[in-house]
Amino acid sequence: MEETLYRRMLGSKLFPAVFASVAFVICVTGMTMRPVVSIRAERVSSRPLLTPGEGFTKFGLFNPAAIQMGEKTVLLFRAQDEHHTSRIGYAESEDGLHFKVNAKAALSPEAPYEKNGGVEDPRVVEINGIYYLTYTAYDLHSAQLCLATSSDLLHWERKGVIMPAYKGTWNTQWTKSGAILPQKMNDKWWMYYLGTRRDADGISRDYMGLASSDDLLHWKDATAKPVLERRPGAFDSRVMEPGPAPWLTEAGILLLYNGADEKLIYSPGWVLFDRNDPGRVIARADQPFVAPTLPWEKVGNVPNVIFLEGAVRQPAISRDTFELTGYYGAADKYIGALRIHIRL
User: Fold this and answer.
1) Cβ contacts of 257 within 8 Å, gap of 6 or more
2) Residue 31 lies in a domain
3) How far apart are CA 332 and CA 302, in angstroms?
4) Within the chain, which residues score under 70 in pLDDT?
5) 3-state class of 223 per DSSP?
6) Total of domains in the chain
7) CATH number reported for the structural domain that contains residue 246 in this entry
8) CA distance 37 to 39
9) 61 neighbors 52 (Cβ within 8 angstroms)
10) What angle do CA 119, 124, 126 make, to 5 degrees?
11) Angle at the Cα of 162 (from 160 to 165), degrees rounded to 5?
12) Rounded Cα–Cα distance for residues 273 and 227 (Å)
C-alpha cells in the first residue's frame, strides 16, 4: 500500500447506507475439476462498527487485528490523529459487535524507526500464552515490519524490526503485514508478509513473501522470490498483502489476503498453500469474495478499500466447514465486519 497509505485525502462525507447482503462463492478447480475452496461472505451491518472519534482516532480508526481473549473479542486497530500520525488502539467487546475503545493507545510511536509516521496495520496471534503483534513502523522515509509481544494485549515489549526494508532476497523496498502461522511446521515458524519491489516495467508493486524463524523473534526470507505470482488484469495485480493469521487445515494452509488492482481498488481473496511446503500454492481465488460497494467503503481517506486484517474463528460446523467473523478497514477511515463462511 505504499502509494495508497499516504495519498491525498479525498472527501469523507458519510452517506446513509442501505444494507445489501454480499455473498460470493469462489472456487478453484484442480486436475480433477472438483471445487477446492468455497467462500461466502456477508456484511454484519450496513454501517461501520467503529468510526473516528477524538484525540488519537480523530482522522481515522481502521485496519483492525482481532483475537479472542477469554469471553472477549479484542480489536487492535490502526488510528490516525489530526496530524496523521498512526497509533495502535485497543477495543473490546462481549458480543463481537459492540466495542468499547480505550481512551489511550496501546502502542504509540517511540522508537527511532517509528517516529513522525507512526505504528500501523497490526496482526496478532497467541502462542503458548504470549501474544505476538506484527506491525508496520513508518518514519516518513521507510516502512518496515516490526514485532512486539505482550501477555495482556495492553502492554507491549518491542522486539524491533524483523524484516528490514531494502535488504530482502527479492523485496528491494518496503516490508509490511506479517501474518504468522500459529503452529510450527517442519520444526520452524512461518510468516507470510508483504514486500515491495520495482518490476522490469519500472513500477513498484507489492508482493507476498514467506519468512521463517526458529524462535518467533528472528526472521529471514524463506524463498528467493514471492510466493504469489502476479496476474495482470486480476483483482490483485498491483497488491498481494496478507490479511489475518493463516489457518492450518486438512486441505492446506488457508490465508485470506488483500488484493488491489491497477486502479487501487482493495478487496480480499484467499490462497491455499501446501501444509508440508508453505511456499507452494495449491489453489487461489480468481475473484474477491467481497468488494467495496457501500458509501463508507468507497469514500473516506483512501477511496474504494475493504482491507481485511482481523478474524475470529467460530466453532467448527464440520470437519471441512467453519465460520469467521472478519473485521476490516473501510476507506482507511472506518471498521466494518463480515460473516465469512468457508468450506474446504
Assistant:
1) 192, 208, 236, 240, 241, 242, 243, 268, 269, 270, 271
2) no
3) 5
4) 1-35
5) coil
6) 1
7) 2.115.10.20
8) 7
9) yes
10) 145
11) 105
12) 9
pLDDT in tens, 283-298: 999 999 999 999 999 9
**CA distance linking residue 65 with residue 133, whole number of Å:** 9
Q: How far apart are CA 333 and CA 48, in angstroms?
A: 10
pLDDT digits (tens, 9 = 90+) for 7-62: 222 233 232 333 333 333 334 433 344 447 899 999 999 999 999 999 999 999 99
CB 179 within 8 A of CB 155: no
Asked if residue 23 belongs to a domain, the reply is no
The answer to the question of residue 44 being in a domain is no
Strands (E), 222-319: 239-242, 247-248, 253-260, 266-274, 277-284, 306-313
39 inside domain:
no
Main-chain phi, psi angles of 278, to 5 degrees: -65, -5
Dist CA 171 CA 158 (whole Å): 24
Distance CA 311, CA 170 (A): 29
pTM of the model: 0.90
* DSSP letters spanning 19-41: ----------B-TT--B--EEEE
Which residues constitute the domain of residue 156? 51-312+324-336
